[in-house]
Amino acid sequence: DILKKRDSxxxxxxxxxxxxxxxxxxxxxxSVKCRGSILVxxxxxxxxxxxxxxxxxxxxxxxxxxxxxPLSTTMSTQNSLHMHNSLNxxxxxxxxxxxxxxxxxxxxxxxxxKMGDGMNAYMTYKVSTQTTLPAFHIKTFSVRRxxxxxxxxxxxxxxxxxxMGCIIPPxxxxxxxxxxxxxxxxxxxxSAEFVEKxxxxxxxxxxxxxxxxxxxxxxxxxxxxxxxELPRAVNTQALSGSGFLKMINKAxxxxxxxxxxxxxxxxxxxxxxxxxxxxEQLLRRLHASVDSLVxxxxxxxxxxxxxxxxxxxxxxxxxxxxLSRALSQLAEVEDKLEQLHQEQAFxxxxxxxxxxxxxxxxxxxxxxCFEQRMKAWQRWQEAQATLQKKREAEAKLLWxxxxxxxxxxxxxxxxxxxxxxxxxxxxxxISSTLRKEVHRFEKEKCRDFKHHIVKYLESLLRxxxxxxxxxxxxxxxxxxxx
Amino acid sequence: MFSSALLLLPPxxxxxxxxxxxxxxxxxxxxxxxxxxxxLTHRPTRSSAAMTSISQxxxxxxxxxxxxxxxxxxxxxxxxxxxxxxxxxxxFTVHTKTTLNSFQKPxxxxxxxxxxxxxxxxxLVETEExxxxxxxxxxxxxxxxxxxxxxxxxxxxxxxMTKEEYAKMKQELExxxxxxxxxxxxxxxxxxxxxxxxPVFSKDRNFQIFLEYDQDLSVRRKxxxxxxxxxxxxMVKSADEVLISGIxxxxxxxxxxxxxxxxxxxxxxxxxxxxxxxxRSHKNVADDYIHISATVSNIGAxxxxxxxxxxxxxxxxxxxxxxxxxxxxxxxELKLTExxxxxxxxxxxxxxxxxxxxxxxxxxxxxxxxxxxxxLKSKDIPQAEENQRQCLQKFDKxxxxxxxxxxxxxxxxxxxxxxxxxxxxxxxxxxxxxxTALLQGCIEMLKVN
Lengths: 482, 449
Known about the structure:
The structure holds two protein chains of two kinds.
Chain A (H helix, E strand, L loop, with lengths): L36 E5 L8 E5 L6 E5 L11 H11 L3 H6 L8 E11 L6 E10 L8 E7 H15 L14 H9 L4 H23 L1 H5 L1 H8 L14 H19 L7 H51 L3 H80 L2 H77 L3
Antiparallel strand pairs in A: 1-2, 2-3, 4-5, 5-6
Chain B lengths: L4 E3 L11 E3 L2 H12 L12 H11 L17 E11 L2 E10 L8 E7 H13 L18 H12 L6 H34 L8 H8 L11 H23 L5 H51 L4 H71 L3 H68 L1
Parallel strand pairs in B: 1-3
Antiparallel strand pairs in B: 1-2, 3-4, 4-5
GO molecular function, one term (chain B): phosphatidylinositol binding
Keywords (chain B): Protein transport, Transport
Function (chain B): Involved in several stages of intracellular trafficking.
């Protein structure tokens, strides 16, 4: 039975037409107010829930597709075809059906605090959630989390969702140098900058996680946001056993990638992967350029400050009083300009550089999903190969007429046929999910970049306005020189 | 004005080619020169009328029309209409127009090199008669090292950039090269014009030779002896500095001047260095915009989503903005850094005057001692008396003309600072408003999208 409820905030679908291997698929339709209201469309025989989000001020439409649970084994190919068709249904049709309910989930990461002492010290951050989603018991709550908790969350999510082709936002990177400085307790501006950078990165990370409808429904995420005390995530340490294991896995993956030659039935994936790889390259380059800009601007700040001091000294030794006053005014102007440049460098960094860094990592995650799909394909091929071998073995036995072994072989065969079927379905599923995910990702990226470009330009505009004011204040002083 | 500026870039790497910059660039230089006033100095007061007219002009809105023109006196007009850059050498064409009889022709041109200017300056310094005058500082050697190094680096990094990016960077560097070139021409020109507008220097024989002699002056390269001699002279000079800073002068005016100039010199030297650094990092920021603009444009080209227009507009805007930023940096360089640099050298020249006076004083005191000794020994008294009288005369003359020169120098300096600071402020405002307009336009366009 399939329950459907339009315009409702809670909806669950049960696909119950199957045998013992049926798994309940629950798609919880909750809206995430980050973008607006959610549309729940029901599709018969299919446990896919398509969600459409519209922004309150209709800034753009997005389609978000929730995850599908492991499908029943007896799902017929007809069904899967049907599923594909519905996916290819034009988006405009879906967008026309809208629901009115909106739910909020706002996340902020604030108040970094240092706990402990010496080399065992660590920073905790306050994670505050404000929500109207019914899944949470209270509307506003906050917990304290440390960096390894965030990494732990990522690990858990990866394990669960990666196999389904979801693009999981990667967390900010570890930095031994940065953290050591903080631990040692130096109260200098560079460690403050590091903490601020990390805080902002963690905030963006969480916001991206909850923006993904599937991840939002995940119990781990909810636990992360709600639970007072989390068990310490130990497998996130760089030099731990699991750390080494990860490294080895990564290495073997890389080798694997080179040896898999996929028989691509759908060109879309191949061209999309190429696009993703190109874009990653370009974004890396852009990131390097913007980084250079930030550094040069910081240099300019330092030089302007030194110059301001120098001009002030010059003004003080100037004998002509009007000129002396003008020179000290000039020193003040340069001081103000230095502050402006400082703020601008800050903007450059947090608006542009971090955005680009995030997206380079995100594109890496996207590539990872493509790799997962390839692995799924590989597993399918291997299963098929094994099945073929079993068939041959059975045929041989048949010929040799050994009834007892034949029974065994037949059982084997059935098992492997089932496996092959499973692998194929897995592959299909991961392919379709990946497609939707990429689509969602692209839309989000588009919106993100647009928003940040405008924000950056506005910051430039603000500083130019102030430059004008500074110099206009100086001009009468200069004219007053006799 | 520039009829043609032949710019041969030193072939450091294969991608540099010889280019003739004519037409557009020449015209640009022409108009710029007409507009850009002799911003750094104005004539030492030939007449108070000139001073007052300038201060009236200064109140006018359009500062650019205030040409504190050194070339006011039509009896001797000098300019450098042409210059050629060959490898490390710059050849200037010095063009003179005169109504004075002391010259053979009313109008003539000669080619001169930087070393010839230095020779002229050094001979003026060594001329006893001019000891009481502030000798205009020698123009600094043309220094293309900065842009040349950048060109080299650009060549090395060629493979890492796209064609457009590379072309833009190269264009930017060529503009920089041209700017250095124009600056050095201007500085040499101003040197000559200060000489020509000075009542005493304009009559100097060596100056006339410099202007007129149509053969190569073939100034000897300083041989080893002279080089060390020069080195020794510098040592003496720093000893002088200790000398005059130690002794308190009887004359109130000179005492004040000495204290002021010594202090001011060190401050202005520091300010010049810091200004240079600041301008250079500003230029770096502007250059970064080029790379960013190019990469954004690449991304935009690859993009097929709604982001495409955003990226394209962003890239265009950055390209426009960086031009404005580049202008801000170069205007700052011209108005502020050059001003400080020039006056640093001028103050050095004023200090040199003080040294000469101090040495004259020392000579006078020595001659006094010699006279006393002679009187004691009753030998060579008339010579000693004559010597002493001459020394005194020299010292008095120095003091008198020195006072005059230093006073006019004060006024000159204040006016120049005022002018340049006003111009710089106005230019900064103009550029910032320009940037603001560009940004606002782009933001509106993007928000509509």
